[in-house]
């Protein structure tokens, strides 16, 4: 399956479909195929308070977070300026950086994410839902809250954005409110 990337063009995100791909020797497209995985890190500073927490995290405090975006696919581009790549790191940054700047960096997450529980888990889930439409080969989002604590949101392999939007609304969104 070819990876589709997105480029930021003004205010609109445009899908960029890759038609020419290279698979690892001997690989077939199935659930056990080899994967190419890219990670791009986006550090940000933010405050939050977990209003319902039963310890010190219920008080206003901040972290030096890192948002890690994981992109994976079974194929590499075989021709053109992106030959040998899954996706250009600059393409990932063009989509993720505006989201980080608008909602996360130097923000109070309770306000910008519109939740009273902006945990690392929630931030990872929120970011995945925001980024997946623009980065179709997005496979996971990790939020590092400290050097020793991180949360990863990785949908089950058979999940699609449609399934995520509908199945999780009954559990995650019920507990935390919808991602806006």
Automatic annotation (TrEMBL):
Pathway: Cofactor biosynthesis; tetrahydrobiopterin biosynthesis; tetrahydrobiopterin from 7,8-dihydroneopterin triphosphate: step 1/3. InterPro entries: 6-PTP_synth/QueD, 6-PTP_synth/QueD_sf. Gene3D superfamilies: 6-pyruvoyl tetrahydropterin synthase/QueD. Its cofactor is Zn(2+). Its EC number is 4.2.3.12. One of its GO terms (biological process) is tetrahydrobiopterin biosynthetic process. The keyword DNA-binding does not apply. It holds the Pfam family PTPS. Keywords: Lyase, Metal-binding, Tetrahydrobiopterin biosynthesis, Zinc. GO terms for molecular function: 6-pyruvoyltetrahydropterin synthase activity; metal ion binding. Signal peptide: none annotated. It comes from the Eukaryota. Belongs to the PTPS family. This is 6-pyruvoyltetrahydropterin synthase. It comes from Cyanidioschyzon merolae (strain NIES-3377 / 10D) (Unicellular red alga).
